[in-house]
């Protein structure tokens, strides 16, 4: 008898959006360029060939259509030769609100 399939629990708390946003990134050991393909108010996935380790601190320079944003984060996981996931690390309460506002503006510009 086959066991019932267990559902994978979703750990993300914020809705994720598909975008193609240019990004420059740097860690203590390497740096690179890439593209953010998946973005939320709490993190993102960076398409880039960087070989970052889990929990590695990384600084992101994200180019929104009308704004440049600098964010810090820690890597959640790395997919070799594809990219890495980042959970943002905020130092001020206003930073997550700023990211949400930029996402809202992107959503509005796509809808309009």
Structure write-up:
- This protein has 112 residues and is an alpha+beta fold.
- It has a single domain (17-111), classed as Thrombin, subunit H, CATH 2.40.10.220.
- The chain has one helix at residues 94-111; strands at residues 17-26, 31-39, 43-47, 57-64, 67-79, 83-89.
- It has a 6-stranded antiparallel barrel.
- The model is unreliable at 1-10 (pLDDT under 50).
Task: Write the SSE topology.
Layout: E1 17-26, E2 31-39, E3 43-47, E4 57-64, E5 67-79, E6 83-89, H1 94-111
Antiparallel strand pairs: 1-2, 1-4, 2-3, 3-6, 4-5, 5-6
In short:
This protein is an alpha+beta fold and 112 residues long. It has one helix and six strands; from the N terminus they run E-E-E-E-E-E-H. The chain has a single domain (17-111), classed as Thrombin, subunit H (Beta Barrel), CATH 2.40.10.220.
From the structure above, extract its key features.
single chain; 112 residues; alpha+beta; Thrombin, subunit H; six-stranded antiparallel β-barrel; 16% helix; 46% strand
Alpha carbon gap, first and last residue: 53 Å
Report the β-strand fraction as a percent range. over 45%
Let me know the largest β-sheet. Answer: 6 strands, antiparallel, barrel
Number of helices: 1
The CATH H-level homologous superfamily: predicted glycosyltransferase like domains
Alpha-carbon Rg, integer: 15 Å
Category from helices, strands and their pairing: alpha+beta
The name of the CATH topology is Thrombin, subunit H
CATH architecture type: Beta Barrel
CATH class: Mainly Beta
What's the overall average pLDDT, rounded?
87
Shape category: globular
- Low-pLDDT segments: 1-10
Strand order of the largest sheet: 1-2-3-6-5-4
Order of helices and strands: EEEEEEH
Number of domains: 1
Helix content: 10-25%
> Strand tally, please?
6
């Amino acid at each position: 008898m086959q066991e019932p399939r267990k559902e994978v629990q979703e750990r993300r708390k914020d809705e994720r959006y598909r975008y193609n946003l240019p990004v420059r990134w740097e860690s203590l050991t390497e740096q690179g360029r890439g593209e953010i393909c998946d973005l939320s108010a709490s993190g993102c996935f960076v398409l880039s060939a960087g070989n970052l380790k889990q929990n590695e601190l990384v600084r992101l320079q994200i180019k929104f259509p009308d704004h440049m944003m600098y964010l810090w984060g820690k890597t959640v996981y790395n997919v070799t030769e594809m990219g890495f996931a980042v959970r943002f690390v905020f130092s001020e309460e206003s930073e997550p609100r700023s990211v949400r506002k930029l996402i809202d503006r992107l959503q509005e510009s796509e809808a309009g």
